[in-house]
Amino acid sequence: MFSLSVSHTPPHRMVSLIGAALLLAAVLLPATPQVAHAQPRVAVIEGDYLGENGLPNQEKSQDACRKVVALLQRGRVPVVLTKDSQVEREGVPEAAVAILPYNRAMTDAEAAQVCRFMDAGGKILCLFVAHDVVLERIGIRPGGLAAAPEGDPFAHLVMTDGLAGAPGSVGWTPEQVALAEPTAAVRPLAMWRGKSGTTTALPALLAHGDGVFFTADARSLNGAGGAQLLRAVIGQLCPALWPAMLPTDPAQVGPLGRFASLAQLQAYVAKQAQANPVYADALAQATVATGIVADLKAAVAAGDLARALALEEQVGPAADRAFWASYPSIPGELRGVWMHHTAAPSWPVAMRHLKDANFNAVFPYMMSGGVAFYRSKVLTVHPKVRTHGDYLAEAVAAAKAAGVPIHARMLNLTTLFAPADAVTALRKAGRLMVTTKGASSSWLCPTHPANRQAQVTAALEMAGYGVDGIHLDYLRYPWKDVCFCKRCRAKFEQDCRAKVSHWPADAVDGCYRGRFADWRREQITSLVAEISRALRRKRPGITVSAAVFLNWESHRESFGQDWVAWIDRGLVDFVCPMDYTPDPERFELYVTRQEKWIAGKCPWAAGLGVYADSMKYGGAHMAVEQIRVAREHGSRGFVIFDYAPELVTEYLPWLKLGVTREPTAFACPAGVAP
Fold it and tell me: What's the rounded mean pLDDT across residues 418-447?
């Protein structure tokens, strides 16, 4: 087996001997299939020959092959897959172009088959490494390896010669590249550029009449640009492949989100538009996109590649517009974001972005059980308020100026963001929850009269700033192991007219388990009632809402949050279940259950975990799909967790093309005092 390392140039005498061996092999090996056929395609030869001590490179070879195939499929290149061992036995499959993605140990016999393929008119595309004789056939003499200049890693391939359909530069970050000594018949098509923007003297693409050599392997090649680049090179080697690689049918455009193609998208919106006029714009956009495809097909038939490529650049954006518009703007929906007490870069800028995207609600937290970010008379005021100013006043002013309704959010029973001395003071006053083991937690006990009064007073204080609503959050227990303080024991015994002999065991999993769970839930529900009643009496017309845990059935046991009871008793005007998951099936399960539990008794909006901790959320495509699913199950809108500057660039532009295209007000009449 002949070494294919690119680290040296073999002596001329050795090359001539190998050439003789290849000629002999060509006589003995079976003939390679003819490359001329009705529908030309590209053969990708996976490197399954690894050579001596080559097993550690197996994963590299497989990854390189998978990446190349994925890029070709993305570029609509017709592909047939084969391997070193198969080519050695049977020759290159019927194809116009053969790609060697990472073939470090080709045998002499396989190299002979590849040469026969080129003799028959086939072209090759080699990446990083191949048999020396194959490389010599396309004018390349291997000359070792090169790393990027110190401190300036390779970042891009930059085109230096015109290539139809190729981008000007492509992101590519190889650790090292192959050096080559090109013959006079070879010309460079592209050079390597470092992260600093400096173009090196190292070629990235070297072109020959029979093939093209890429000096790096494809594993770090950028997806979108890489697909265009490979397709352009293939189109240069075999122009007859262009008709197959260009989208001349709506079924070839895509996928587009959940739709396999533009054809499927158009069929969907056409059907929806028959019954619902809100889909008319999506249908119009899809019709425009299919019209461009028809023009492109005509250009291909006329042999006008330049026009076909120009039209192709229009197809993608047109199809994308149709896709986003397929998620229509629904009147009366809640379109909200949960926010911090600050907004980057500023409240006025953030509100302007949200207003421009037709959002109609913001939910910034402005207090927790241990601290206030406004000038409170009942809670510890955060030290930054003295230097920065009143955060709630700032947020309200910006929201009112932009015309975006603001719902001040209470992080009710947690002491998040509170100074340590404030939490210590609460602990000394006996106002914090106690665990089954007698340890103090950092959450407010809901049975303590001072805590309950502070919650009501804080809600009224924030309502006095002229907010549109008060939004309850963290109004629950942190887990089922709290609260078992002396006061909770006494109140439970008094309310239930029982004497608990073994506390907390009897309440946790003993004879009073069921009664204690009911009582525990009632402590939270009654606090919601106190807050809601006080707000509605003081500020008639203000809305009272809540961010709630997604699984009422089990979470009412573990966290004591019986939010369905809050709805049944008319304590809240709407709820926002926090349906944080990137899993489509799990999300649909969540909203299906919520639709059943809420049963149309009040509006609800699905909470999307766009930037939730540890959430591998899939971008705007996932957001609009979750909104669609939630709508189908009765959701009256959505709330995104949470606002960040990235939301402005990663989500808002796409939502505005469909889901939030038209401005609307959230149609939710406020309740009356229960």
Answer: 98
